[in-house]
User: Fold this.
Amino acid sequence: MAGFCHAYGKVLPTRWQSLANGKAKSCQLVGKAKKIKGSPCLTMAAKSYLCGTLNKIQTMIEVTDVALRQAAGEGMDAFIGVFTGAYKKEIGGEMTAGTMSLLTGEQHSLLAYQIFRDEVMEGGFCQLIQNGYGGYIFDNPFAKVMRLWGVGDLSKLVYAAKKIYDSHRDDLERERTDEEFMAMYEQYEAFDELEDEFLEKEEEYTALVAGYVDEHLELFAKIV
Assistant:
């Protein structure tokens, strides 16, 4: 954690000073999009696409400079939590068909990591699935995104868990009593090795995810 805080502290002043001066990439994109949108050479479809892109940029979920500075000193999980906390607030604390579209693909991927981390660390894959997150993690390209973010070992782990999930989905997701839930840990011992691996490497995975977010802040939130 100390290494992360030190590295983040080094990039923080220049990167966020740029944001404070109105030179952030999102601001540049807004200006360019406005100019292009008015061009007579664009088709209606292209103009519609640019309008949508411009709207997304202008309505990007915001997190504060103060919150990120404080979280950077607390640890990588706290840093990620600033973003995911804002996402949860945006969707009203629950994911429904009506709220899913409020987040971008990158934001969903970061939220998925936070949910995955918390659930697996607390109660393993059985808890994650019983709490209703199986589809969110395994039906979406979460594993692929982790590989693209440089967390290849986690990607492999998620794909391995997905094989178990896909093979026993109906049983894993069916409603259970407390006693039946506890019995799942014996029934699905196939998850044990994957859970142990995640617990062993969680700090490494979280550091890699936080590092990716740090290098691509504009994809995850507008800093104010």
Summary: Strands lie at 62-63, 222-223. The first strand starts at residue 62 and ends at 63. The chain has one domain: 61-223. The radius of gyration is 20 Å.
